[in-house]
């Protein structure tokens, strides 16, 4: 009976939402938003935050619903576009697409760029759809449960993430751990929130806010690829230079490998997205780590495993949608981007919060329905575009790569209008190139860079609140469960390590880092 | 050697001509090209709509395009430094919150002197801090909070955004005025601080305006205790001010200021002050500012300067007495 009434209500809400969005103007803003998002996402460098803050002043003059529909479109549109450059060029369009490079680019090198782009589009759509459904059905419940995550829970969760992800690198585990630690150290640069004291800033103002995430991702992932390709430009070429629609069609094997990672990635993304302190970036790394953990043959990862692109893309799209739940129903922004979305609401005199759905049903349901329409538009935009994107690969390198470098540098500059951020790209590009020569993987470094400072902040806050008492980590049920899980993952990893070293004592680890 | 000397002369001559030219330009008619307003915070933040509105006002008054340039970083000091080092030719202005102006950094060197390197033109707006408590916290008024905190010294957890920042300062000012001892809990972003306040993980928190807390206030998970200013805010007509609550020293506000580089020509200060004050006091602009979460409050350049002086003195005193400390 209750279930029937839920669906009855839902039909009502869908009608309200469609009524709000199905005006030519709102459809136009929805289309404009996702198109811009897709473009901004695909261009390496320029991120969603920059795009949204640039368009923020235009929204003053729009209806609040239209303004929100457009900004939201840019936001989730970038998640679609972000994987394109990762797969084709090994240059992440977005920080949250950095993991997609790990297996997407090898797929492109095997001539399977079309399949990779097609399947990430499908995964993105599935992830986003589930995220939207959750938002439609359970927003208040999810929001209230998100509030049960205090600093203790966040810390335990980050710890679990870091442990799970320490296996992300291919090659020797010690190298992966070294990269995680280097990432944490780099993440510590800047003013410490807990003491107000600068660390590793050398009294240089631009370092007070720490190292720019966009610069480190572009520097470590994108530019070394460019350098390496220029070095090898004579001897190597892609397996397929031209692509037919047929080659986009995934094989039966691709399909059967994809559905489970898609669902797991969606689950992880939905969960992290709804937490105000986590977000899409963390979820895509977690989704990748989980796939590698559950895979029957983890050695396939890093060499073009389709699971390695499906899960993170499903995750970051799901997270982008569920991130609206705390923003809209609690008025709590989970990220800088969501803070701007809140700003738009407030400037138009709309108060986000539990009453938003009641006071402005047309706005809330209109936005939700615009998510569906936007996602469908993105799929329709993306599938024919795949053929065009793949043609990018047939552009001679000596034209393509200077253009990429220009995009990377302008993108880094525009995050804070700061030329120092461009210098950072250059520094990390040099470091990234040496890491590449030494066979060190950049993904664990990025994860350490993001999670390390977050863990520190939450640990110190937790201890401040409990006046130095560690027991609270075990007394709070969610935190205790997560810590137990971390321990289990650790034991599992050790067990697997000993089993494999006993089973194959003579086999040296073969490194096939490209 | 000779060549070097010649070069030096050439350089000096260029500088002299440049200075003359800019002087001449000023003497003629300012402004004859676009004006840049530097905002030392990220686009899309709280300062964004305030700065853009003032920029429109300047543009309207003087008929030249006004460009808003966002230069975030290091809590506003990077952008403020750009203006502090800029030519005082009237083409580079600063719109900022108190952060880079009322600034006593703990052991950190600032490349500019907030006291002398910037000239105030007018205050733009006033946004008093709001003191809120978690819905789960027993106190419902400031007096109840004071009584509770006195009975449980050091046990009340006050969420602040970063130690040594202005929201920490507002909490310290509250402590001083009420004679209580609170424990500051630093947060990086505003999102988690509000979430923890709603969940009751922290007990109280201060923030500029009601905007961030509005959702929680609506459903009762956050209680507004008191406005830390001299007038009530439009969004919360039932919440008393600290003066009404009997603690007039607990005033703490995040305002916005229009400033310029040092040695700014006094006639330009006067021109800009008059134009911006007139623009901001229009009824439609005042309404706009309420939507942004603050109230228009203009001043003479002298009043603006005095405001900064007053707050810097309070801050220095708190730091010197070891009350406002980061360790």
Structure description:
The complex is a heterodimer of chains A (514) and B (327). Chain A has 514 residues and is mainly alpha-helical. Helices cover 72% and strands 1% of the residues of chain A. Chain A contains 21 helices and two strands. Chain A has helices at 2-21, 24-42, 48-55, 64-89, 98-109, 113-146, 151-165, 173-187, 213-231, 252-274, 280-294, 307-322, 324-330, 336-347, 356-359, 361-391, 397-416, 419-437, 442-465, 472-475, 477-503; strands spanning 190-191, 198-199. Chain A has a two-stranded antiparallel ribbon. In chain A, a hairpin with a 6-residue loop joins strand 1 and strand 2. In chain A, helix 4 (64-89) crosses helix 5 and helix 4 (64-89) packs across helix 6. Chain A is globular and about 60 Å long. The termini of chain A are far apart. Residues 506-514 of chain A have low confidence and may be disordered. By secondary structure, chain B is of the alpha/beta class. Chain B folds into two domains: 33-126 and 254-320, D-Maltodextrin-Binding Protein, domain 2 (3-Layer(aba) Sandwich), CATH 3.40.190; 128-227, D-Maltodextrin-Binding Protein, domain 2 (3-Layer(aba) Sandwich). In chain B, strand 1, helix 2 (47-62) and strand 2 form a beta-alpha-beta unit. The longest helix of chain B is centred in the first third of the chain and has 27 residues, at 2-28. The termini of chain B are far apart. The model of chain B is unreliable at 11-27 (pLDDT under 50).
Biggest sheet of chain A, strands in spatial order? Answer: 1-2
Largest sheet data of chain B:
10 strands, mixed
Count of individual helical segments of chain A:
21
State the share of residues found in helices of chain B, binned by percent. Answer: 40-55%
Structural class of chain B: alpha/beta
By oligomeric state, this entry counts as: heterodimer
Strand content of chain B: 15-25%
> Order of SSEs of chain A, N→C?
HHHHHHHHEEHHHHHHHHHHHHH
Spell the H/E element sequence of chain B.
HEHEHEEHEHEHEHEEHHEH
Radius of gyration of chain B: 22 Å
Beta strand count of chain A: 2
Strand content of chain A: under 5%
The total domain count of chain A is 1
Largest interface: A-B, 57 and 57 residues
- Report the CATH superfamily of the largest domain in chain B: Bordetella uptake gene, domain 1
Query: What's the count of strands of chain B?
Result: 10
CATH class of the largest domain in chain B: Alpha Beta
Low-confidence runs of chain A: 506-514
Principal-axes geometry of chain A comes out as: globular
- Helical coverage of chain A, percent range: over 70%
